[in-house]
Design brief:
The complex is a heterodimer of chains A (79) and B (151). Chain A is mainly α and 79 residues long. Helices cover 63% and strands 0% of the residues of chain A. In chain A, helix 2 crosses helix 3 (35-42). The termini of chain A are far apart. By secondary structure, chain B is mostly helical. Chain B folds into two domains: 6-115; 117-151, no CATH class. Chain B is 67% helix and 3% strand. Chain B has six helices and two strands; from the N terminus they run H-H-H-H-H-H-E-E. Chain B has helices spanning 6-15, 25-55, 59-82, 87-90, 94-115, 117-126, and strands spanning 137-138, 145-146. In chain B, strands 1-2 form a two-stranded antiparallel ribbon. In chain B, a hairpin with a 6-residue loop joins strand 1 (137-138) and strand 2. In chain B, helix 2 (25-55) packs antiparallel against helix 3 (59-82). Chain B is elongated and about 75 Å long. The model of chain B is unreliable at 122-131 (pLDDT under 50). Classes of the chains: A mainly alpha (79), B mainly alpha (151).
């Protein structure tokens, strides 16, 4: 279950980050985690806690549901 | 989560798993996994070492190794139970069951080795095992050097 969430969220997080013009290091710094954690999320290896998901969603101008929810990916819709 | 009392706070500080420590949440999770891996491996290695020591007649050393092994395991169980997690319920995967059964088999072998000292010890002593013989000693009457056998 957790791995499915991570795999589904991975391309959305990457697309949202690129749409915001942020590097992995900048997102990691803004969310208060290491760059390796952002890389793990974007590879689908790690599903963040709800607190980290909220911080990442806020930094990317998105919502937790859009990034980590079960709805199909809507890449390109992110700001 | 319930509020931690002084003992729990001290234990968490010792383990350095607090929120706001130098790790982020993924790193803490990975570190916890690595500690579990090390603990499990340590138990298996300690059991093997204890079994080998018991089989060559070093029962006190064998028991000491087993006691040393039990300390981190008991500490982990104590820590988990204080935070409302029963560690025995977490061991339900096929691999976990294999580890548990391996431990049980090793413990059984260990007790067999402990309870049957006459055959194994006698055999290793008469063969002059370096683990069971004493230090090199000189016989005063004949001046010969020999290894005293401890039974």
């Amino acid at each position: 279950m957790v791995s499915q969430v991570a795999e589904k969220a991975a391309p959305r997080v990457r697309a949202a980050r690129k749409a915001c013009g942020l590097t992995q290091a900048q997102l990691a710094n803004a969310a208060g985690v290491s760059r390796q954690t952002v890389i793990a999320m974007e590879r689908g290896d790690y599903a963040p806690s709800v607190y980290l998901a909220l911080r990442i969603a806020a930094e990317l101008g998105s919502t937790v549901e859009e990034l980590f929810g079960g709805a199909p990916s809507t890449e390109g819709d992110h700001p | 989560m319930t509020k931690l009392n002084a003992i729990d706070r001290a234990a968490a500080r010792l383990a350095d798993t607090r929120e706001g420590s130098r790790f982020d949440e993924r790193e803490r999770a990975v570190y916890s996994e690595s500690a579990t891996f090390a603990n499990t491996l340590g138990i298996l290695v300690a059991l093997v070492v204890s079994l080998v020591l018991a089989s060559v007649g070093h029962f006190v050393a064998s028991f000491a190794v087993l006691l040393t092994m039990a300390i981190p395991e008991a500490a982990a169980a104590w820590y988990s139970m204080r935070r409302g997690v029963d560690p025995t319920k977490l061991r339900d995967s096929a691999w976990d069951k294999l580890i548990v059964w391996s431990t049980i088999v090793m413990m059984a072998l260990l007790f067999v080795a402990w309870s049957a000292p006459s055959s194994l010890t006698a055999r290793s002593s008469t063969q002059g095992s370096p683990l069971t013989r004493g230090p090199l000693t000189r016989r005063s009457s004949s001046g010969q050097w020999f290894f005293p056998v401890s039974c």
